[in-house]
Amino acid sequence: MLTLNYVKQALINIKFRLKDMSPIASLPIPVKKALHKLGNDIRDARKRRRIPMALMAERSCISRVTLTKVEKGNPSVSLGIYASVLFVLGLTGRLSVLADANYDQIGRSLEEEHLPQRIHLPKDKL
Fold first, then answer.
1. What is the 3-state secondary structure (H, E, C) of 108-126?
2. Which CATH number characterizes residue 87's domain?
3. 7 band by pLDDT with thresholds 50, 70 and 90
């Protein structure tokens, strides 16, 4: 009986350790703030359209609990669910340009630093 209690306690300890190591806890503060703002914006957009939570959840094919998590900006909710909610609200237009190269000034400037000085054609093409 003593070993059974020991195993139970060990499993409980492992569970709490895994909970502390979740990637959600290690998100940078600006990311947490951005998700929180996104959730608030989604909630406000839903309310402006006068869509009840139950109907919004049904149209998005998610539960009301998940919709609540979305509206709180919970980082454990998948991007697909956020996209589904935005689609129901008619706000997916800018979703396709989130990481668009046209808006990635840092990436473009880094790329320009490594452009080749000369471009040589293969000899068989001459």
1. HHHHHHCCCCCCCCCHHHC
2. 1.10.260.40
3. low
Whole-structure pTM value: 0.69
* The token pair that represents 126 in the structure block: 């001459």
- Contact (CB, 8 A) for 57 and 66: yes
CB 99 within 8 A of CB 123: no
Q: How far apart are CA 85 and CA 77, in angstroms?
A: 11
122 in a structural domain:
no
Residue 116 lies in a domain: no
Residue 72's domain comprises: 28-111
Give the 3-state secondary structure of residue 17.
helix
pLDDT attached to residue 26: 85
Position 87 scores a pLDDT of 96
Question: 95 in helix, strand or coil?
Answer: helix
Q: What is the pLDDT of residue 125?
A: 63
Lowest mean pLDDT among 74-78, 107-111, 122-126: 122-126
* Structural contact between residues 73 and 35, judged by C-beta atoms closer than 8 angstroms: yes
Q: What is the domain count for the chain?
A: 1
